[in-house]
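Hi U.,

Before I forget, here's the chain from the pilot set. I'm dumping it here mostly so it's searchable later in email.
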Amino acid sequence: MPDIAPPGILVIKLGALGDFVQAFGAFAAIRKHHDKQKITLLTTPPFGEFAKASGYFDTVCTDGRPATLDIAGWLRLRHFLRGGGYGRVYDLQTSGRSSFYYRLFWPGPRREWSGIAKGCSHPHANPERDRMHTVERQAEQLSMAGIKEITPPDLGWATADISGFGLSERYALLAPGGAAHRPGKRWPAGRFGELAQILTGKNIQPVLVGATDEAPMMAAICDICPDALGLAGKTTLLDLAALGRGAVLCVGNDTGPMHLLSAVGCRSVVVYSDQSDPALCGQRGRDVTILRRDALSSLAVSDVVDALGV
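Structure:
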């Protein structure tokens, strides 16, 4: 009689980058707990290759966020959920959207579900969950679902060839961008330019990292410090991880790349305004310093230099 494969495991984590990076401890714990089962990740395109490289998932699906009026996309997602043979779902997104996915299994037997969907089998039943840091919140959610051992993310698998970027022997990473619709979370570009000049004077090459649409801002910084290297839109997540390991330090706003750079162990200074709370979403890593001001325009370059100790 042939062996019957155990039911599969589905993990839902759609984004954004900072939250995705901080989920890798949970990803690893789920992989260890379900070491004999096939694990599928449902995510979005920016994180597909990075997730595949981790080795925590047997399959990665990046079709996890259909647009509201994309009827074909919703039907495709429903078919994916119902036909995947999943016995348990770990919803690490725990949003209204991902909780709605629980309802897409209807009609039919309900799967075991860890999350906040109404009526799910393993709810994260802590009314204070939204006041917890992302890492502790996910650890408690998994503990309530029977996974007790969760360790900080180990991103040692995240490697890439960065020899083509033209890096100096000593370089620092600057992440001056962030969500365009939240300009209050950005330290002024001119201050990053001044910091880049100071780093250059100490024989440290400033390297600017971020998204393609941040290229004009990075160009303005390079006008202030012509020795700075702008890599807007030129790095993958694996590249960023490798860059972080080789950098002497990194400085940036509360933005996704800083979560990844700090997680790989880069000495990090992250600047916060009153528009986000590091107690809930602060970067984690071996050497992370948080500088917070109500308005980032009041944060002096000298304050950052003092925090860096350079």
